[in-house]
């Protein structure tokens, strides 16, 4: 889905603005500054103009590319690994795609998998209210049975949306889109049809889907009309009564601004219910605002565990050992926020004390769609010795963040900082891995399990939630859990942020155009 995921942002400090990214920005660039004077700026290898002098000159594509180049050279975490190419042969979008490291991590994976851009209009809607054009369904793409190239299944839907109104719910398989078979489509025209239908860009677009609902024996046809869908980032808060106490459960899908009120309400409900344990379902949470993650961590752990402790320490590239290059402020650790920050004052004002469960452990349900701020949440809790028990699959691996930055109506996301917890740990670029016998810090006590699309989220019989309840009673994994040695099934979640693309080596490639609809942050 996107799982518009997307990432996290900057360590938000009280009093700063949400995006902290005014058009263009300032900052001095590394290398030799170029005095652009009254002449049009030009590319000179190894020389970088101050990017503030190039900002918002939108009629000249070369100037836009030079702004991207200088901005990246100044703030990108691995700026010295960017190849300084002449921008002339490339479009603005193509050139931005090249302004990142091509180096590999120690395990042989690409070091930077979180480099993307989107229209500023789209980003503002998504970040501020979770609004995007679509049908309100998040999709899971996975390899299916032998002979079938792909299977797209509904992972969940938003309430009161075209998908939910038509009964297209979790577990429904998308068989075809406007007559194109999802499983076997492999030519460019067919892929284009799938993309256009699954990820509409315009409200009012009608698409005919053939779906097979969960446990159904036959397919049915349904026509969905795309509209502006507003995400409900916090859903399905409930208390599960067991013989050994009360277990709180909540589904948390995105660290966007409106999540502050949703989490406040959910944790107040669970606090009033006096739950003994908590299961946080963040399997589809691709990230967002780091400050939201800090608030949630506080609400889990409470005052005693978080007092004078650090949620996350951030660091930028070696040009800025003590200063945030975007805000110009001295680097200070992000605390565990114990009050509301007023991300959306129409929903919840700032300065309100947050509820707290005061737990010493928490169960988290994860998939590869669990990313960024969600991983920072796990890492921060472990940093103050709150026991985190992980049920599900390996997370995405993004201990990095960025400030969404606008120039000429496009918002760019490039990795600018990395974070560590109170103990100084932050090396989980290959993800957090559930393990029955953890041996390294990126392995978390828990059980390796595939996402169960055959049960509703929050159903006690759903595999991940069931495993959490079993682990709680037995301090061990159920028999259905697999050994850590197996290659995790990297299900990919798609939605407006991830696009299907035709490739020579695969029928389908997922390319996150936004990463954790939210990109951001982590």
Commentary on this structure:
With 522 residues, the protein is an alpha+beta fold. The chain folds into two domains: 1-130 and 231-489, 2-enoyl-CoA Hydratase, Chain A, domain 1; 133-226, Pdz3 Domain (Roll), CATH 2.30.42. 19% of the residues lie in helices and 23% in strands. It contains ten helices and 25 strands. It has helices spanning 61-75, 92-98, 120-129, 162-165, 188-198, 259-272, 290-301, 303-306, 373-383, 463-474, and strands at residues 116-119, 131-134, 137-142, 151-157, 173-177, 180-181, 206-212, 220-225, 227-230, 234-242, 245-252, 277-281, 310-315, 334-335, 361-366, 387-392, 400-401, 405-407, 410-413, 417-420, 433-435, 443-448, 492-494, 498-501, 509-512. The strands form six sheets. Strands 3, 4, 5, 6, 7, 8 and 23 form a seven-stranded antiparallel β-sheet that branches. Strand 15, helix 9 (373-383) and strand 16 (387-392) form a beta-alpha-beta unit. Helix 6 (259-272) packs parallel to helix 7 and helix 7 (290-301) packs parallel to helix 9 (373-383). One of its GO terms (cellular component) is outer membrane-bounded periplasmic space. It comes from Shewanella algicola. InterPro entries: ClpP/crotonase-like_dom_sf, PDZ_sf, Tail-specific_protease. Residues 246-398 form the Tail specific protease domain.
